[in-house]
Amino acid sequence: MNRQRAAVVPFASAEEAWLWACRMIAGSVFGVPVHRAPEPIQRPCQPCDVVQAVDHLYRRHQLMRDHLAVLDHYGRRQSAPDPERYREARARLLWDDAFVLIGPVLAGKGIAREPADALESARF
User: Fold this and answer.
1) Tens digit of pLDDT for each residue in 26-68?
2) Which of 4, 102, 120, 20 shows the shortest CA–CA distance to 60?
3) What are the tens digits of pLDDT across the range 5-15?
4) Is the pLDDT higher at 23 or at 52?
5) Number of neighbouring beta carbons within 10 Å of residue 104
6) Is 8 helix (H, G, I), strand (E, B) or coil?
7) Is 61 left (phi over 0), alpha (psi -120 to 50) or beta?
């Protein structure tokens, strides 16, 4: 039997990778069935790889507890904080601040594509 290997597809962004990891971990912890897309998308990592990258930044004191609280809360909610909502404005600042650090780490590991800002600055 001849099997074709699906191409490994990195995430479009570090945010997408984080939300995917949160969804996969929640499914395994709480027994919620995780439905995958019907097309064969093979990701370049396991959910724990994304979490370990965030944990590494925390242990190096680059991410603070407030960052982790926001990442956890909105990861469970499966959406980024809405900056238009007054109560989520500070959370959005922390969210963006966290992904400024997380994005390059995940891009360096091939988990997510390079952030657009980094690509623009690399051209000049």
Assistant:
1) 765 555 555 544 445 778 888 999 999 999 999 999 999 999 9
2) 102
3) 667 889 999 99
4) 52
5) 16
6) strand
7) left
Nearest to 110 by CA among 62, 25, 23, 49: 49
Tokens of 28: 């395994």
What percent helix, strand, coil does the chain show, rounded to 5? 60, 5, 35
Total-model pTM: 0.80
Residue 50 in 3-state DSSP?
A: helix
Residue 9 in tokens? 């597809």
Q: Report the residue count for the chain.
A: 124
Judged against a pLDDT cut of 80, whether residue 106 lies above it is answered with: yes
**DSSP category for residue 13:** S
Q: Find the distance separating the first CA and the last CA of the chain, reported in whole Å.
A: 50
Cβ-in-10-Å burial (0-12, 13-18, 19+) of 81 comes to buried
Instruction: Give the 3-state secondary structure of residue 110.
Output: coil
